[in-house]
Design goal:
single chain, 624 residues, alpha/beta, Rossmann fold, GMP Synthetase, Chain A, domain 3, 2 domains, 7-stranded mixed beta sheet, 31 strands, 32% helix, binds coenzyme A, binds adenosine monophosphate
C-alpha cells in the first residue's frame, strides 16, 4: 500500500487516530483529550478541550526552538520599490507589540478586529496580533468598495478597524482611509477605534476622535503574551460570496486549523521547515490567510508578501524574478495569473532570464486550471504543476496531487485525488452516489476534517441550510463535477450563482441586487461568461421599466459605475446590455444557464419549461 493509501484509509476508517497523530506535531499548551466530538448544534468539532495559541505556534515556538534568526517573512513590493526581511524573532517582537497596542485599545479574547489593508507586512502582523490575544480578525480585501466593507463591519461588530493610508495598484495610489470612513458612516455598527498605518505614498487625515496613528501607538505599547484559547475558539471570520447579496462569514477555529495547516505543508506542498514558500495571492482571500500567513509560519518556512502583480510590475518576468531572488521552492497562485503572464510573454522570453534553481513545484487553485494553461506553464518552466481544489469554507485543499505522499500522474483538467481526511463523493439530485464519470454535486461526507468551517458567523441556520441540509450526512461544496474510473476528481464549475473572476469569488446574485437597485431597472440577470484571461467575467442583461430609454448608453454606464462603487473594481462588471425581456421558465425562473451557453457560443437545448422561446432569439441578437 502506498503512503497515500495508508493515510487516506486511516483518516477514513479511524479519523480520531489519524488526526491525533497529526495533532501531536504541533505545540499545544494543553494537548486535547477529546479528538472528535459534537458541539451543541450537532456539528463535528476537533480537539474540543485542547488549548493553544496560533500566534505562538507561528512565531514564539520557532524562536524557542532555535529558528529565531531565520527569515520568517520577506516583503517585496515592486509597486513602491521597497524590500524588507523579518526574522522569526523580529516578527515575534513586532507582533507582540502590535498585540500590546490592541490590548491598550481594549481588545481582548473574543473581540473582533476588522483588517482592511494592502499587501504589506503590517497586515500579517495585525492578523497575528489578533491571534496572539485570542481576538478574532476579519480581513476584508482591499479591492472591495465601502459598501462591502460596511456590510462586513455590521456583521462582525469589530471593536477596532486596522487599516493603512493607501494601497498601490500598479501605478495608482488608492487612499483607503476615506473608504473606511465612508464604510463606518454607512454601517450601523461603529468601531471604537480606527488604527491607521501611514504610508508615505499618501498620508491619511486622522481627523476623527476614533482615529489612531499606528506607529505612534506602537512606540508606547508593551509586548503582549500569547493568550491560551480553546481549539474550538474562532481564529478568524472571512466573508465570502454566496448566492444572496449578503456575504457569509466563514468561521475558522484555532486548533483544527493549526493541525490542518501543518499537515498540508508536507503532504500537499512537499516543503520542509526552512524552505521558502510563496503564495502569490492577497491576505484578503483564503489563500492569503492559509498560505501567506498561517501555514508557512506554523510550519517554519519563510513566506513572501508580494505587493505587485504577475505582469506590469514591471513586466511578465515578475513572478520568476521573485522565485529567483529569494530561492522559492513552492510557488502557488491562481491560473489567471499565469494566463496573464502567458498573454504578455507567450514564448517565455522573460522566464529565460531566471533559472530559479530552487523552484520545485508550481501550485494552482482558485479556479479550474484549464489544460492549455497547465501545458504552457509546465512546458515553459519545466516544473510539475499541481492543480488543487479548495474553498474559503474548507481553508485547505480538498483534492490535489499529494506529492508529499505520492506523485500521481497528472490528468489535465483534474484536481487529482481527495486529500486524506476528505471523503469526496459525487451525488445525483436525490443524494445518491453517481457512477464513475457521471457528473453531479460534489459533496464531502461528514465529519469534515480539521480546519473546515464549523459554522457561519452568527448565522448557524445559514450553515445548515446552505451546506448541510440538502444531503444529510454530507457537506455540499457548491461545485459540480465527476470522479473518473481511476478515482481522479474533475471539478467543472459552480452549480450556484457564484462566479470566479481572476481567481476572485463573486456573487452574481449580489450584482443583480445592485443593478436591480437602479431606478430604471425592472429586472435583470447577471451571469458569468467565459473570458480567456480572467476565466469568467460578469455580464448584465437588463430590462428597463416602461418609460425609461437609455440614450447613448447612459443607463448602461450608470449600472457599471453603480457596481464599481457598491461592490468594487474587483467585480470587473464592464458589460451591461438592455433587452426587452429575459428568457424564463413558465414558473418565472430566469434561464441563466441557457443565457450563459448562448454567450459562450455553446450548443444549448431549449428547455421544455420555457415560457416564450422567442426570448432566446433576442438574447442571441444582443449578444452577437
Ligand atoms: N485594492 C484596490 N483595488 C484593487 C485591488 C486591491 N487590493 N485588487 C484589484 N483591484 C482593482 C484593480 O486595480 C482593477 O481596477 P481597474 O478596473 O480600475 O483597473 C480591478 O480591481 C480589477 O482587478 P483584477 O481583476 O485584479 O484585474 P487586473 O487587470 O488588475 O489584473 C490579474 C489581472 C490576472 C493580473 C490579477 O487579477 C491577478 O494577479 N490575479 C491573481 C489571482 C489571485 O491573486 N487570486 C487570489 C486567489 S489565489
Ligand atoms: P474561494 O472560496 O474564493 O477559494 O473559491 C472557491 C471556489 O473556487 C470553489 O468552490 C471552486 O468553484 C473554485 N475553485 C477553487 N479551486 C479550484 C480548482 N482547483 N479547480 C476548479 N475550481 C476551483
Amino acid at each position: 500500500m502506498s503512503a497515500y493509501q495508508k493515510e487516506y484509509q486511516l483518516a477514513q476508517t479511524a479519523p480520531e487516530v489519524f488526526w491525533k497523530q497529526q495533532a501531536d506535531k504541533i505545540a499545544w499548551f494543553k494537548f486535547p483529550q477529546t479528538i472528535l466530538s459534537q458541539d451543541e448544534q450537532g456539528i463535528d468539532r476537533w480537539f474540543a478541550d485542547g488549548e493553544l495559541n496560533t500566534a505562538y505556534l507561528a512565531l514564539d515556538h520557532h524562536v524557542e526552538q532555535g529558528r529565531g534568526d531565520q527569515t520568517a517573512l520577506i516583503y517585496d513590493s515592486p509597486v513602491t520599490g521597497q524590500k524588507a526581511r523579518y526574522t522569526y524573532r523580529v516578527l515575534r517582537d513586532q507582533v507582540a507589540k502590535t498585540a500590546g497596542m490592541l490590548a491598550d485599545l481594549g481588545v481582548s479574547k473574543g473581540d473582533r478586529v476588522v483588517i482592511y489593508m494592502p499587501m504589506i507586512p503590517e497586515a500579517a502582523m495585525a492578523m497575528l496580533a489578533c491571534a496572539r490575544l485570542g481576538a478574532i480578525h476579519s480581513v476584508v480585501f482591499g479591492g472591495f468598495a465601502p459598501n462591502e466593507l460596511a456590510v462586513r463591519i455590521e456583521d462582525a461588530e469589530p471593536k477596532v478597524i486596522m487599516t493603512a493610508s493607501c494601497g498601490v495598484e500598479i501605478n495608482k495610489v488608492l487612499p483607503y482611509k476615506p473608504l473606511v470612513d465612508q464604510a463606518i458612516m454607512d454601517s450601523r455598527w461603529k468601531p471604537d477605534h480606527v488604527v491607521v498605518h501611514q504610508r508615505k505614498q499618501c498620508l491619511a487625515d486622522l481627523n476623527q476622535e476614533r482615529d489612531k496613528d499606528w506607529s505612534a501607538l506602537l512606540r508606547t505599547a508593551t509586548p503582549h503574551d500569547c493568550v491560551p484559547v480553546l481549539a474550538t475558539d474562532p481564529l478568524y471570520i472571512l466573508y465570502t460570496s454566496g448566492t444572496t447579496g449578503k456575504p457569509k462569514g466563514v468561521v475558522r477555529d484555532n486548533g483544527g486549523h493549526a493541525v490542518a495547516m501543518n499537515y498540508s505543508m508536507s503532504t500537499i506542498y512537499d516543503v520542509e521547515p526552512g524552505d521558502v514558500y510563496w503564495a502569490a495571492s492577497d491576505v484578503g482571500w483564503v489563500v492569503g490567510h492559509s498560505y501567506i500567513v498561517y501555514a508557512p509560519l506554523i510550519y517554519g518556512c519563510t513566506t513572501i508578501m508580494y505587493e505587485g502583480k504577475p505582469v506590469r510590475t514591471p513586466d511578465p518576468g515578475a513572478f520568476w524574478r521573485v522565485c529567483q531572488e529569494y530561492g522559492v521552492k513552492a510557488l502557488f497562485s491562481a491560473p489567471t495569473a499565469f494566463r496573464a503572464i502567458k498573454k504578455e510573454d507567450p514564448e517565455g522570453e522573460h522566464l529565460k532570464q531566471y533559472p530559479m534553481p530552487s523552484l520545485k513545484t508550481i501550485f494552482m487553485a482558485g479556479e479550474r486550471l484549464d489544460p492549455p494553461t497547465l501545458e504552457w506553464v509546465q512546458s515553459k518552466t519545466g516544473r510539475p504543476v499541481v492543480d488543487h481544489w479548495w474553498q474559503t469554507e474548507t481553508g485547505w485543499a480538498i483534492a490535489g496531487n499529494p506529492i508529499g505522499l505520492e506523485n500521481f500522474a497528472v490528468k489535465p483538467g483534474s484536481a487529482t485525488k481527495p486529500i486524506p481526511g476528505y471523503l469526496v463523493e459525487v451525488l445525483n439530485e436525490v443524494g445518491e452516489p453517481q457512477k464513475a464519470s457521471e457528473q453531479g454535486y460534489i459533496a464531502i461526507r461528514r465529519p469534515l476534517p480539521p480546519g473546515c468551517l464549523p459554522t457561519v458567523w452568527r448565522n448557524h441556520d445559514r450553515f445548515e441550510s446552505g451546506y448541510l441540509s440538502q444531503f444529510p450526512g454530507y457537506y455540499i461544496s457548491g461545485d459540480g463535477g465527476y470522479i473518473d474510473e481511476d478515482g481522479y476528481l474533475f471539478v467543472m464549475g459552480r452549480i450556484d450563482d457564484v462566479i470566479n473572476v481572476a481567481g476572485h469569488r463573486l456573487s452574481t446574485g449580489e450584482m443583480e441586487e445592485v443593478v436591480g437597485g437602479h431606478e430604471a431597472v425592472a429586472e435583470c440577470a447577471v451571469i458569468g461568461i467565459h473570458d480567456d484571461l480572467k476565466g469568467q467575467l460578469p455580464l448584465g442583461l437588463v430590462v428597463l421599466k416602461d418609460g425609461y430609454v437609455s440614450e447613448g448608453g447612459v443607463i448602461e454606464n450608470e449600472l457599471l459605475q453603480k457596481v464599481r462603487q457598491e461592490i468594487g473594481a474587483v467585480a470587473c462588471f464592464k458589460r451591461a446590455l438592455i433587452v426587452d425581456r429575459l428568457p424564463k421558465t413558465r414558473s418565472g425562473k430566469i434561464l441563466r444557464r441557457v443565457i450563459r451557453q448562448i454567450a459562450d457560443g455553446e450548443q444549448y437545448v431549449v428547455p421544455s419549461t420555457i415560457d416564450d422561446p422567442s426570448s432566446l432569439q433576442e438574447i442571441e441578437r444582443v449578444l452577437e
